[in-house]
Amino acid sequence: MSLPIIDIELPVFVIFSVSAIISSLLIVNSRNVFYSAVSLGILGISVAVIIALLNPEAYALYSAIHLLLYVGATVVFIAISLVLFRGVQVNESNIPWASPLATVLGIVLLSVILVPFLSASSPLPPQALNLTVLAQDLLVKYWFPTIIIVIALATTLVEAITLARRD
User: Fold this and answer.
1) What per-residue confidence (pLDDT) applies to 112?
2) Which residues form a coiled coil (predicted)?
């Protein structure tokens, strides 16, 4: 028995909203900049899920690019530049419940990803990728998310140049 999507939206929204609030508080209150960057990654994931919940058909692309841009690029760039160039010390702490919790969450995440693929009746036939149609969709259908992404990329570029020029 599977739950309808409508029944799942509210709990997912509440979970990721609380996650966004908690991670934003951790960003502000953390004394270590590296841990603030990790919390920024969690905030980026939470915001991407909330954006996708607004209208999955319209904002799925924007949500995916938000994940790639902020979590995949910006947070990793900040973390690596802090550790390598600033010599930020990352203190390891042994929390006894962290490993079992991470294992359970990893198994749950893996099952959430794999169950739709394993339960599919027949695979979809591959379709040819037409770059002209993709560009037309990005500029006509998804013009607002495209503008947001261009501004975000420009901001990230300015941030990278500023960090690189700082002595």
Assistant:
1) 79
2) none
